[in-house]
Amino acid sequence: MTVSLSHVHVLVDDPDAALAFYRDTLGLELRNEVANDGFRWLTLTTPSQPEIEIVLSQPQAGRSPEDGEALAAMLAKGELPGVLFRTDDLDATFERVRAAGNAEILQEPTDQFWGVRDAAFRDPSGNMVRISQS
Fold it and tell me: How confident is the prediction for the chain on average, in pLDDT?
């Protein structure tokens, strides 16, 4: 028996702004875009791991209004779990994100005491995004 990761969900309040960040700024590839019941979700992959899809969806999609609003409030506060990426050139990736201007920079590339070198941002919806040097 084998188990492998196939999808990671990231909640976003504005799919277009999220697409601009994850596709245009980070370089992920749009795999699928689906509209359903007034909402839409997008799936993206990285060129180096096309078998793992990152699903961008809105908090209210497929949930009760109460649950959707609760998640939207947590998203607005930046309290949802973030996503971590690796890159082979952290400095170039950081400069690309900075130049795009569609993310809040939280930490410039830094050598961490636990042994990684990484940078941190908030995507347009407020999600924490960390990128480490591979």
Answer: 95
Beta-strand runs (E) in the chain: 7-11, 29-36, 39-46, 49-57, 83-87, 104-111, 117-122, 128-133
- Sign of the Cα torsion 76, 81, 87, 89 reads positive
Determine if the pTM surpasses 0.85.
Answer: yes
- Calpha distance 83→128 (Å, rounded): 7
| Three-state secondary structure readout of 40-68 | EEEEEEECCEEEEEEEEECCCCCCCHHHH
> Which tens digits make up the pLDDT trace of 108-120?
999 999 999 999 9
Separation CA 28–CA 120 (nearest Å): 17
* Distance (Å, whole) CA 10 – CA 5: 15
In three-state secondary structure terms, 31 is strand
Cβ-contact 83, 54 below 8 angstroms: yes
pLDDT at 29 (0 to 100): 97
Q: How much is the average pLDDT of 57-72?
A: 92
